[in-house]
């Protein structure tokens, strides 16, 4: 049986909070039964003092239950105070539209509070009403705030139109963010994004700058329509990580020309086919 996200968050926080768990549970209940917005602000202000800011301790079963509660929800890496903030906002039943409350909180939040606010996006009531506030987060010059939306968060997959989705992926590359934590990256792949990223790669090469190997993940399915085989051939002649990225991209395309180029690197192709190399561990092996 699936457990609601707020119930999971409450369970995890109470389990970890020790004697302060009862304080948290009591105040969370009062937020759901007619508390004022001032009560919400007081509660949010007390959370880090009462609960601390350590990482939220999760088991593999907790992670599994999170994915069942909301597809794509990945609470790994959350802090206990951030989780408590999200739980408070899920449970709060205020007189104003939630988007107005969220807007006020965003305006006064510090970086850590902003990260928590945006990580909770897929779990709030009426998440589609937060489109403007999400746009503000995407434009942030703080990478961690941008990544609170772009990484391990299914909100973008579920609510962004193609233009906003493509802009987010391009900005991730532009600011040096990884693509593998983007939820829905493969299912939201589209020809326009592939074209944009190919143009971006050409600009980088023309300026003598490196191109993230992850970029080719979004290009692979559209190699033929973009006439990008020459580009993939260039990547194949690069570093070991670039060669692996090219093989992964080619493996996502069934055209005869892609198959032919793939055959030029049989050892890497074998590692890919056997599951030893994938987009999730591509850059990890580079760092190692």
UniProtKB/TrEMBL annotation:
According to the lineage, what is the superkingdom?
A: Bacteria
What's the protein here called? EboA domain-containing protein
Q: Supply the source organism's classification.
A: Bacteria, Pseudomonadati, Pseudomonadota, Gammaproteobacteria, Oceanospirillales
């Amino acid at each position: 049986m699936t457990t609601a996200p707020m119930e999971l968050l409450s369970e995890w926080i109470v389990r970890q909070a020790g004697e302060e768990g009862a304080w948290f549970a009591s105040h969370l209940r009062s937020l759901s039964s007619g508390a004022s917005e001032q009560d919400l602000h007081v509660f949010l202000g007390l959370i880090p003092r009462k609960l601390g800011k350590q990482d939220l301790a999760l088991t593999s079963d907790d992670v599994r239950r999170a994915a069942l509660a909301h597809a794509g929800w990945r609470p790994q890496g959350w802090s206990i105070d951030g989780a408590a903030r999200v739980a408070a906002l899920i449970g709060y039943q205020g007189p104003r539209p939630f988007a107005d409350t969220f807007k006020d909180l965003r305006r006064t939040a510090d970086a850590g509070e902003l990260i928590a606010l945006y990580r909770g996006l897929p779990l709030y009531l009426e998440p589609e009403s937060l489109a403007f506030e999400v746009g503000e987060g995407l434009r942030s010059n703080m990478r961690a705030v941008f990544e609170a939306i772009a990484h391990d968060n299914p909100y973008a997959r579920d609510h962004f139109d193609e233009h906003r989705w493509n802009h987010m992926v391009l900005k991730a590359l532009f600011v040096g963010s990884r693509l593998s934590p983007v939820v829905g990256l493969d299912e939201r792949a589209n020809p326009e994004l592939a074209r944009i990223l190919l143009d971006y790669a050409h600009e980088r090469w023309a300026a003598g700058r490196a191109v993230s190997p992850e970029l080719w993940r979004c290009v692979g399915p559209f190699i033929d329509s973009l006439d990008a085989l020459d580009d993939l051939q260039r990547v194949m002649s690069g570093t070991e990580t670039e060669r692996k990225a090219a093989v992964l991209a080619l493996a996502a395309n069934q055209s005869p020309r892609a198959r032919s180029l793939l055959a030029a690197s049989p050892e890497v192709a074998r590692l890919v086919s056997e599951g030893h190399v994938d987009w999730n561990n591509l850059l990890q092996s580079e760092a190692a």
